[in-house]
Amino acid sequence: MPASRVLDDLLPRRSGPLPRVAVIGAGMSGLALARVLTGAGFGVRVLDKGRGPGGRLSTRRSAEGGTFDHGAQYFTAREPLFRTLVEAWVAEGVVAEWHGRIGTLTRGAVSPAKESERYVGVPGMNAVAKALADGLDVRFGARVERVERDGRAWRLTSETGEDLGLADVVVAAVPAPQAVPLLAGAPALAAQAGSARLSPCWAVMARFEETVAVELDGAFVEDSPLSWVARDTSKPGRAPGERWVLHGSPEYSAAHLEETAEEMAPKLVEAFGKALGRDVRAVEAVAHRWRFAMPSPPLETPALFDPALGLGACGDWCAGPRVEGAFLSGVALARRIAER
Ligand SMILES: Cc1cc2nc3c(=O)[nH]c(=O)nc-3n(C[C@H](O)[C@H](O)[C@H](O)COP(=O)(O)OP(=O)(O)OC[C@H]3O[C@@H](n4cnc5c(N)ncnc54)[C@H](O)[C@@H]3O)c2cc1C
């Protein structure tokens, strides 16, 4: 089955007047939800403040023209529906298995990690989001600031005061702290979202002239300000080069959260050298602050929804962390909206 049909055909197609749905956030959860409901015949509009789809499934261009996956590094697929979708994407070349050597790095000492199927988007992680967004009504560059009652519907307004239209059902598919103000019309849901915590992550995109000599392409780092490093160029379909992504640990990232990107890049490159047990010199190193990177821990609910009010929220902080958890949360909320 083509990947596009896996979600489009998930629910029976409805006819007759259906509620208009607005989805705030074009990350994995919002796009999965929008895809399922659009396939079922609902009129769905997605709004995102970014320039393209993906959210934390993100790919950045480097100065020499290559790319970095500076958010999600890879994903696993365990639940049957997600596996079906991922297998269809693999057949279509949107996703490939990453056969990089994964292990643990502790001050120069290397040990292998447990075997696992690890998937990545091709040629970058955001390829998955682009495939999901294809054919949907998505507007970028629109940061929703207010969701307010207007008769029986909800009116969405941007941070610049622009009227973003009316919807009968509004979904905040954004990290929990960003969902809180958007759920003001449903105080019980806002309180639940307000109780979810996401840890931050400083990510550094580093390019090296020489191959970094280590028998690993991805490593969980111990005893270090870093928690993860990956040779981005070892992933399938990437432009050649020696590009690495370095992730600060949640504790270290939180302690240095308000420092500047210029301060953080050299610190984490130095930490990389210490983890390897030798100095390394990057020819390019750019840091990015993810203020809300990973739920810690997620709420134990697939998604939030008030059917009477027509307000809901989904994301990795609901059902389970990570890309697959975000996907499942979006699909779960789509089912609830369709049942409403
Ligand atoms: C550094 C890092 C490493 C990670 N590593 C992995 C990994 O290896 N494997 C894995 O499975 N997962 C990983 N994750 C987690 C994974 O990326 C997330 O679980 C998943 O992508 C979350 O999807 P989402 O739809 O819930 O939210 P997001 O991807 O955050 O999407 C939310 C979207 O909402 C938009 N938005 C926010 N507020 C507004 C607003 N007011 N108006 C309009 N738009 C708005 C944002 O621009 C964004 O596009 C990592 C995350 C980070 C940051």
Automatic annotation (TrEMBL):
SUPFAM superfamilies listed in its UniProt record: FAD/NAD(P)-binding domain
InterPro entries: Amino_oxidase, FAD/NAD-bd_sf
Pfam families membership: Amino_oxidase, NAD_binding_8
Superkingdom as given in the UniProt entry: Bacteria
Domain Amine oxidase, first and last residues per copy: 119-337
Name of the protein: Amine oxidase domain-containing protein
Naturally occurring in which organism (per UniProt): Corallococcus caeni
Taxonomic placement: Bacteria, Pseudomonadati, Myxococcota, Myxococcia, Myxococcales
